[in-house]
Write a structure and sequence with these properties.
This protein has helices at residues 37-52, 67-76, 100-112, 124-156, 169-180, 186-216, 221-226, 234-244, 253-259, 284-299, 307-319, 321-342, 360-368; strands at 2-9, 13-20, 29-34, 56-62, 80-84, 264-269, 272-278. By secondary structure, the protein is α/β, with parallel strands linked by helices. A hairpin with a 2-residue loop joins strand 6 and strand 7 (272-278).
């Protein structure tokens, strides 16, 4: 016998609906538990009792902020947990009756029919990498914001200003000395000095985070393989590693590119086919990482002869810079999938060759074949 339990999980409580194969059982009921030690304890006790009576316990729960903790707790009691992919499960969000009890009942119903789209839950190590990367990103954005404030202040005072003048400590000190040398700009100099101190503190914090990321990925095979790609830096490699985790989850390069959100929308009805913009589904950080990877490759002097770069230049003339870079990012995502799947280092020789764009006739023949 199997018990299917739908859980509507919130920050302060979770609502549970259980159903069995035999409707004669009294398990088809709805109970609410607080998300406290006592609440979890009572729910786990109920699961253990069901297991003792010979039931297989299957639980469905939506992906929320505390789903990882909930999943780890109930799995200790012997239950199998399915984390729902909310992007593919619109039944609850679009329901006319939106209550916790109804949502829990809907989840248990679809769980019984094995119709819940499952979402991947990353490991704790990967979650730590993502947190560190997000913290670093916020700090970098704050540093840029502080520098922009200083740039705006210098412009408002009619002083000469260059974008690179604040990139180094030496450059910032030069700007500060210029302000301090003028008695009429004493207050402005003090404000800029405080801003520079904040920038230095945040820059040190960024270095600490990067050092910790390097330690966590020191022996990581995926990061080492990604670093063999010409133009791939540490931040890009860490980001791809953190948001990909297990490449074997993706059956093909196209599915991995779709996970990155780098494939176009397709609407195919009757004899009409429409292709739209990229879906942008999946982690935004992963899409950004592949765009940064393309830009890194482009900055290298010896990559202009690569087919992917020739294709980028060709598309840029016809489609514009943005679309061409995104298209190249999709190709790099597919190449990355092949490298990680086959466990091979990047070989620049395979990227060499002349790119020959297909005309309309060739495209039609390729589509038929």
């Amino acid at each position: 016998m199997t018990v299917w339990i739908g859980v509507d999980l919130h920050k302060t409580q979770f609502t549970v609906h259980a159903r069995t194969e035999s409707r004669a059982e009294t398990l088809d009921q709805i109970i609410q538990y607080p998300t406290t030690e006592e609440g979890y304890g009572n729910f786990l006790k109920r699961i253990r009792n069901l297991r003792t009576r010979g039931y297989d316990v299957k639980i469905g729960v939506e992906s929320t902020g505390n789903t990882r903790f909930f999943k780890s707790q109930v799995e200790k009691a012997g239950a199998k947990v399915t984390v729902i992919n909310t992007l593919k499960f619109k039944v609850i969000n679009e329901s006319a009756k939106k209550t916790d009890k109804h949502d829990a009942s809907t989840i248990s119903e679809f769980l019984e029919k094995d119709m819940l789209p499952e979402s991947h839950v990353c490991s704790q190590e990967t979650e730590n990498l993502r947190r560190l990367l997000k913290s670093r990103e916020r700090l970098v954005r704050s540093i840029v914001g502080q520098k922009n404030e200083v740039h705006a202040l210098l412009v408002s005072m009619g002083l000469s200003d260059e974008l690179r003048s604040l990139q180094s400590k030496k450059g910032r000190q030069k700007v500060l000395d210029a302000l301090l040398s003028r008695s009429d700009l004493e207050l402005e100099a003090q404000s800029v000095k405080l801003m520079f101190q904040i920038i230095d503190q945040m820059a040190e914090s960024v270095k600490v985070i990067e050092k910790r990321l390097a330690e966590l990925t020191k022996d990581d095979e995926m990061v080492s393989r990604l670093m063999t790609i010409r133009g791939c830096g540490k931040i890009t490699a860490w980001t791809i590693r953190a948001y990909t985790e297990d490449i074997s989850r993706f059956a093909s390069a196209k599915k991995y590119a779709a996970f990155c959100g780098l494939v176009p929308w397709v609407q195919d009805s009757n004899e009409t086919v429409h292709h739209g913009k990229i879906t942008k589904r999946g982690p935004q950080e992963l899409r950004t990482a592949f765009v940064q990877l393309v830009l890194g490759i482009r900055r290298c002097k010896d990559t202009s002869s690569w087919r992917i770069m020739q294709r980028l230049d060709y598309m840029k003339r016809n489609k514009g810079s943005g679309k061409s870079i995104v298209a190249a990012a999709r190709k790099m995502a597919e190449i990355t999938w092949a490298l990680l799947t086959e466990r091979q280092d990047f070989d620049a020789k395979k990227m060499m060759g002349e790119y020959k764009p297909m005309n309309l006739v060739d495209q039609a023949l390729a589509a038929i074949n």
